[in-house]
TrEMBL record:
A Pfam family this chain is assigned to: His_biosynth
Protein name: Imidazole glycerol phosphate synthase subunit HisF
Database matches in HAMAP family: HisF
Top EC class, one word: lyase
Main localization (coarse): cytoplasm
Subunit details: Heterodimer of HisH and HisF.
Subcellular location as annotated: Cytoplasm
Keyword terms: Amino-acid biosynthesis, Cytoplasm, Histidine biosynthesis, Lyase
UniProt superkingdom: Bacteria
Known function: IGPS catalyzes the conversion of PRFAR and glutamine to IGP, AICAR and glutamate. The HisF subunit catalyzes the cyclization activity that produces IGP and AICAR from PRFAR using the ammonia provided by the HisH subunit.
Length: 254
């Protein structure tokens, strides 16, 4: 079995890490550079940085903040938000990112993820899907920071993303975001079953058991924010627990 990844997420607005529930009620948390340094030292496998208002505000990502974070870490770094062109992707990668996460722009112009995969490689191209349940067992894709329902089926969109060449998919379960009641297993496992590329679960982590549940269901990585930001779960303790449950993680902690 391939080792699983533990990935803290920095949702950034106006240069600060923020967090909310179900993509609403956003509150200030901390400085992104300081949090990034902490997670790097604690043994996180990767770090994700989302500029959460860039797409909705029709602006570019805060590259200066990306550069500052990249200088402080030695782990893979994924960046998303406001990425609309291959020029944007190039700028983000030059600023220190290892991967780009494309969400709204991929829905509006799917050729962008194909172009990114062709020019920069599938390993650099990640499809981020904000999905919300609209009927029993049916999830739609939302864009612009979860504000707009596209009417697209999330599972079908994941399959199309793989066909266009993305290297992995982040499944952001909007209903579970910030609730701390566990990851959305039906949604995430449905997408993981439908594709043959790595899937990252996002939204809903509240305790160590939630990580165990999702990572034992064939999901490749678990992303979380507030439980790490507020110290409710320490990454070293989480990895120790996963190892004890025979769920392999990429490396043990200090």
């Amino acid at each position: 079995m391939l080792a699983k990844r533990i990935i803290p997420c920095l949702d950034v607005d106006n240069g600060r890490v923020v967090k909310g529930k179900k993509f609403q009620n956003i509150q200030d948390v901390a400085d992104p550079v300081e949090l990034a340094k902490r997670y790097n030292n604690e043994g996180a496998d990767e770090l994700v940085f989302y500029d959460i208002t860039a797409s909705n505000e029709q602006r570019g990502i805060f590259l200066d903040v990306v550069e500052k974070v990249a200088k402080e870490i030695a782990i893979p770094f994924m960046v998303g938000g406001g990425i609309r062109t291959t020029k944007d992707i190039h700028q983000v990668l030059r600023s220190g990112a290892d991967k780009v996460s494309i969400n709204s722009a991929a829905v509006q112009r799917p050729d962008l993820i194909f172009e990114s995969a062709q020019k920069f490689g599938s390993q650099c191209t990640v499809l981020s899907i904000d999905a919300k349940e609209v009927a029993s067992g049916k999830w739609n894709v939302f864009i612009n920071g979860g504000r707009k329902d596209t009417g697209m089926d999330a599972i079908e969109w994941a399959k199309k993303g793989e066909a266009y060449g993305v290297g992995e998919i982040v499944v952001n379960a909007m209903d579970a975001d910030g609730e701390k009641n566990g990851y959305n297993l039906p949604l995430t496992t449905a997408i993981a079953t439908a594709v043959n590329i790595p899937v990252i679960a996002s939204g809903g982590a509240g305790n160590i058991e939630h990580f165990s549940e999702v990572l034992s269901q064939g999901i490749d990585a678990a992303l979380a924010a507030s439980v790490f930001h507020y110290g409710e779960i320490k990454i070293p303790a989480l990895k120790t627990s996963l190892n004890e449950q025979e769920i392999p993680v990429r490396r043990n902690t200090k």
